[in-house]
Specification:
Largest sheet: none
Order of helices and strands: HHHHHHHHH
Distance between the termini: 54 Å
Radius of gyration: 26 Å
Strand content: under 5%
Number of strands: 0
Oligomer: single chain
Shape: elongated
Number of helices: 9
Length: 268
């Protein structure tokens, strides 16, 4: 038996499987309970991000304010790092429970020895604390975006499905915007108006698939930002002084190349 000639009609089964894998996932999205856990995670992004941002900014403002007037600001700022670590632990648990993403926890805060000022300096040079702070602050704008997507996409899909039913009501008011008359005529004409129903269902199917994709991206971002890539609890190295804090902050931002990166590249 001769082998079939190469060409578009003779595709590798594995290639075809990969190509249609996304389609199968999209078709299974409405019946998959994980889809609705992903939806809940994206919706919670706004309230959680708002709470985290408000707490961090308030505690930091109080700590620096008291530090300028009295030394009591030092323990307040030290306590703010423990607050940030606790909030990051909540984010890790939320990601693990709702998204099913493995989230290994980091080691407890190493506060060092000495007086509160020495402990504050020691904790402030821990790179893990700055990664948690950066993540929690970014959670607010990211939460706004995920909330808007998670709410708007299903709402639009439901509105499209409901359009022919709504336009057939006697007490409806479609408005006076430029395309209102055209859309009203289309929505009340038989049988074309009922095409809104399958169009809305198709949009809902695509929306759920998009929501699953975005939730997966958020889970990977959380694991990379505040999770331990090694999978085992381990303390992160401390910086020798406060000058390296900016470097740690910038190293965590994709696409930013620091001077140290350029030196390492030249030596390599």
């Amino acid at each position: 038996m001769t082998s079939p000639p190469p060409g578009p009609l003779f595709l590798d089964r594995r290639v075809a499987t990969d190509e249609f894998g996304g389609l199968r996932q999209a078709l299974r999205s409405p019946a998959d309970p994980q889809t609705y856990r992903n939806l809940l995670y994206l919706v919670l992004g706004l309230p959680l991000g708002t709470i985290w941002f408000t707490l961090i900014v308030t505690v930091a403002a109080v700590g620096f304010g008291l530090m300028a007037a009295a030394l009591i600001g030092i323990p307040v700022l030290l306590g703010s790092w423990y607050l940030i670590h606790a909030l990051a632990a909540i984010e890790r648990s939320t990601t693990k429970v709702l998204l099913g993403h493995p989230m290994p926890s980091l080691a407890p805060i190493d506060h060092g020895d000495g007086n509160p000022w020495d402990r504050l300096r020691h904790v402030s040079t821990d790179a893990a604390r700055w990664r948690e702070l950066r993540y929690l602050l970014l959670r607010f704008p990211v939460g706004i975006a995920t909330f808007a997507i998670a709410v708007s996409l299903p709402t639009i899909a439901g509105s499209i499905v409901w359009t022919p039913f709504y336009l057939r009501r006697d007490d409806h008011d479609w408005g006076t915007w430029p395309l209102s008359t055209t859309l009203e005529n289309l929505g009340t004409s038989d049988p074309w108006s009922w095409l809104f129903v399958p169009a809305g269902l198709l949009f809902a199917l695509v929306s759920l698939h998009v929501i699953n994709r975005i939730a997966g991206i958020c889970g990977r971002w959380t694991a990379r930002a505040i999770g331990d890539p090694s999978g085992t609890p381990a303390s992160t190295p401390h910086l020798t002084n406060f000058d390296g804090v900016e470097e740690i902050w910038r190293r965590g931002v994709p696409g930013v190349v620091t001077e140290a990166d350029e030196i390492d590249a030249d030596n390599g």
